[in-house]
Specification:
The protein contains 8 helices and 2 strands; from the N terminus they run H-H-H-H-E-E-H-H-H-H.
C-alpha cells in the first residue's frame, strides 16, 4: 500500500513539472563557462560565369530571340523585315496565291542582297568563284539577330510546302535554297491539295 502511494505521488510530481515546463515554452538552459561564438557564413561560390566570348555568345542568342536588330544598312534591314513578314504570312495561309507571290518576291530580294554582298562571278558550270574571306563576309551579313528570325520564319513557311525552285527567277534559283531546309522544296502543299482538287472537280 505504501509503495502504491509513493508511485502516485511521483506521477503527480512528474505531471506537475511537465505542465510547468510546457507552460514556459520548454526552455533549455545550458550553463557554459564562455558563450559559444558562431562565425558568420561566408560565400564559397566564385560567381564568375565564363570569359568574354561566352558572354558575347549568350548576348547574341538573347538578341536573336528577343530583338529585331539587323545591321547598319537600311536597305538590307528593309529586305529582312519584308522577308520576315512574307514568311509569317505564308506559314499562316499557304494556299493563298498572293501570300505565295509575296514570299517568292521577298526571298528573291533577300537572296540578291546576299549575292551583292558576296560580289562573286560564276563559272561556266554555275559555280561561284569566291575567296574564303568573301564567303565569310557574306555569311556574316545574313547572321544578325533579325536574320536568325528570318530563317526561323522561312523554315516554318517552307515546311508547309507548295513552293519549288522553278517559282523563283533564274538569277536566284541556285542560291535561294541555302536559306531553308532542302527537304521542304518538293511537291505541293498537303494542306492545299484537297482545296485544289475541289476546285478542279466541282460537284455535279
Amino acid at each position: 500500500m505504501a509503495r502504491f502511494i509513493l508511485f502516485v505521488c511521483m506521477a503527480f510530481v512528474s505531471a506537475y513539472v511537465g505542465v510547468s515546463w510546457a507552460a514556459r515554452g520548454f526552455p533549455m538552459n545550458f550553463s557554459t563557462s564562455s558563450p559559444v561564438a558562431v562565425a558568420p557564413l561566408q560565400p564559397t561560390l566564385d560567381a564568375h560565369f565564363g570569359d568574354d566570348r561566352a558572354k558575347a555568345a549568350l548576348r547574341k542568342d538573347w538578341e536573336a530571340e528577343h530583338t529585331s536588330r539587323g545591321d547598319d544598312d537600311t536597305k538590307r534591314n528593309a529586305i529582312r523585315l519584308d522577308t520576315l513578314q512574307a514568311a509569317n504570312a505564308y506559314a499562316m495561309s499557304p494556299c493563298d496565291k498572293t501570300m505565295k507571290a509575296n514570299l517568292i518576291n521577298a526571298l528573291s530580294a533577300y537572296t540578291r542582297a546576299w549575292q551583292a554582298k558576296l560580289g562573286c562571278k560564276r563559272n561556266m558550270f554555275g559555280q561561284l568563284i569566291c575567296s574564303d574571306q568573301k564567303y565569310k563576309e557574306a555569311a556574316e551579313s545574313v547572321n544578325t539577330p533579325l536574320d536568325r528570325r528570318v530563317r526561323a520564319a522561312l523554315e516554318s513557311a517552307f515546311e508547309q510546302k507548295g513552293i519549288v525552285t522553278a517559282d523563283f527567277p533564274e538569277d536566284v534559283q541556285l542560291d535561294v535554297k541555302q536559306f531553308t531546309s532542302p527537304d521542304f522544296w518538293s511537291g505541293q502543299s498537303p494542306i492545299c491539295m484537297p482545296r485544289q482538287m475541289g476546285s478542279t472537280n466541282p460537284a455535279q
